[in-house]
Automatic annotation (TrEMBL):
Gene3D superfamilies listed in its UniProt record: 1.10.1750.10, 1.10.8.60, 3.30.300.180, P-loop containing nucleotide triphosphate hydrolases
UniProt function note: Plays an essential role in the initiation and regulation of chromosomal replication. ATP-DnaA binds to the origin of replication (oriC) to initiate formation of the DNA replication initiation complex once per cell cycle. Binds the DnaA box (a 9 base pair repeat at the origin) and separates the double-stranded (ds)DNA. Forms a right-handed helical filament on oriC DNA; dsDNA binds to the exterior of the filament while single-stranded (ss)DNA is stabiized in the filament's interior.
Species of provenance: Acetobacter orientalis
Pfam families with a match to the protein in the record: Bac_DnaA, Bac_DnaA_C, DnaA_N
Gene this protein is translated from: dnaA
GO terms for MF: ATP binding; DNA replication origin binding; lipid binding
The record's note on its domains: Domain I is involved in oligomerization and binding regulators, domain II is flexibile and of varying length in different bacteria, domain III forms the AAA+ region, while domain IV binds dsDNA.
Name under which the protein is recorded: Chromosomal replication initiator protein DnaA
């Protein structure tokens, strides 16, 4: 049934893909040999159809032999849905709500997924050392992770404490360690987020199985707890973790922990826990550099098979600086569009497709600021930025300002045109290419423009 299909798909496509696309599917009606699956938007429907359509049909047919066709539709409120299923009002249909098998008698005989108590690591197959791009900001953490994966529990590396900001690769490194250990075999590895740890612990208390839970935890060779900062303020769970931690380290097992801050900065954790956490190896992952962001983008673009021009990669690395997850998300969206519409990736298309993301990451340079700086630089009146005067002394700076507006903001050509006395977007386009031409053959001019750019960017 649907639950099994979902879990097989999840195994095949990986967690991230699965959550991005497939949890959005709701079951629709069955009509003869055809089942309808509903998606919240057209884009999602097209994407799921192109990427997973055939596979979905195959899986359905294997599960329910009478079903021969899968129809993908955009959900509308009031669409007929299978018995026992409700179409949520909100566009973000959650996985839990939708993964309900249509046959209700079947569901009662199967334990809910959460009730499963084994703690074996569930790892995302894409997070391996091979796919981790190493650069200055993360090379130390990477080296430590590799070392622990090769020789768990060696002196000085236990516990391994990885910390850094959101989306800088902590989880990726932990999964990599897990994958490496499991590949070599003969070790039991447990991985869970601190949040999951807490919920398991609470569930164990409820079902009066804390002994089993503790036993399980203390029987692993390597225990990884992700995002430990979650335990701040959760005193009982901290206490439990502390005991497990001590028991494991004393028994010579490896502990790996991640958090968003160093042990000493995790105020709100008990002192004795912080002390013990800092006893092994503490490695921080620093914010990415431009070079690292470019390398990561290059590697992910290459893996996708879609050709992404260097100019686009540089543009993204320049615009999205805060975390790799967002950078990756932006690139994935570009790639999805390229695949979906079969169009090459260009800078123009990028600005279009990523409009919302780029807006959020705008360096907050406004067109007005650009106009002001440029006018000052060439000593013309600010009003001439929007005036109709065509004399070169004002026309050239105006073109430079348009060029910089295009480079430094995520405004579209028509938007930029409007700010320059309601000019047409073709005028802006012309200005941009004219400035590029002149920069290519007039070094002094190019230097001026670069200088302005740097002043505006900082
Ligand atoms: P964190 O756990 O620190 O918040 P993640 O490990 O979840 O961050 O990383 C966020 C995303 O960025 C993941 O998809 C991960 O694969 C990717 N990522 C982060 N750092 C790198 C890197 N150095 N090389 C390749 N991918 C990376
Ligand atoms: Mg993480």
């Amino acid at each position: 049934s649907w639950v099994r299909i979902c879990s097989r798909l999840k195994g095949e496509v990986g967690d991230v893909e699965y959550h991005a696309w497939l949890t959005k599917i709701a079951l629709g009606p069955v009509d003869g040999d055809e089942i309808t699956l509903l998606l919240p938007t057209r884009f999602l429907r097209d994407w799921v159809r192109s990427q997973y359509g055939d596979r979905l049909s195959e899986l359905w047919n294997q599960e329910v032999a009478s079903i021969r066709r899968v129809e993908l539709q955009v959900a509308r409120p009031g669409d007929p849905v299978a018995p026992g299923l409700q179409l949520d009002e909100s566009p973000a249909l959650s996985a839990q709500q939708n993964i309900v098998p249509p046959e209700s008698d079947e569901s009662s005989s199967r334990p809910a997924p959460e009730a499963k108590s084994d703690i074996a690591a569930i790892l995302d197959g894409r997070f391996t050392f091979d796919t981790f791009v190493v650069g200055k900001p993360n090379e130390f953490a990477y080296a430590c992770a590799r070392r622990v994966a090769e020789k768990p529990s060696s002196v000085g590396f236990n516990p391994l404490f990885l910390y850094g900001g959101v989306g800088l690769g902590k989880t990726h490194l932990m999964h990599s360690i897990g994958a490496e250990l499991l590949q070599r075999g003969n070790v039991s590895v447990a991985y869970m987020s601190a949040e999951k740890f807490m919920y398991r612990f609470i569930a164990a208390i409820r079902s009066q199985s804390t002994m089993e839970f503790k036993e399980q935890l203390r029987s692993v060779d390597v225990l990884m707890i992700d995002d430990l900062q979650f335990l701040i303020g959760k005193d009982n769970t901290q206490e439990e973790f502390f005991h497990t931690f001590n028991a494991l380290v004393d028994a010579g097992r490896q502990i790996i922990v991640s958090a968003d801050k160093s042990p000493s900065d995790l105020s709100g954790l008990e002192d004795r826990l912080r002390t013990r956490l800092g006893c092994g190896m503490v490695a921080d992952i620093h914010a990415t550099t431009f070079e690292l962001r470019i390398s990561i983008l290059e590697s992910k673009a290459a893996a996708s098979g879609v050709i992404v021009p260097t100019k686009v990669l540089e543009f993204l690395a320049h615009k999205i600086t805060s975390n790799v997850r967002e950078l990756e998300g932006a690139l994935n969206r570009l790639i999805a569009h390229a695949n979906l519409f079969g169009r090459p990736v260009t800078l123009e298309a990028t600005q279009d497709v990523l409009h919302d993301i780029l807006k959020a990451h705008d360096r907050r340079v406004t067109i007005e600021e650009i106009q002001k700086k440029v006018a000052e630089h060439w000593n013309i009146r600010l009003t001439d930025m929007s005036s109709a005067r065509r004399a070169r002394v004002v026309a050239r700076p105006r073109q430079v300002a348009m060029y910089l507006a295009k480079q430094l903001t995520s405004r579209s050509l028509p938007e930029i045109g409007r700010k320059f006395g309601n000019r047409d977007h073709t005028t802006v386009m012309h200005a941009v290419s004219r400035v590029e031409e002149i920069m290519a053959c007039d070094a002094a001019f190019a230097e001026d423009v670069e200088l302005l750019r740097r002043m505006l960017e900082s």
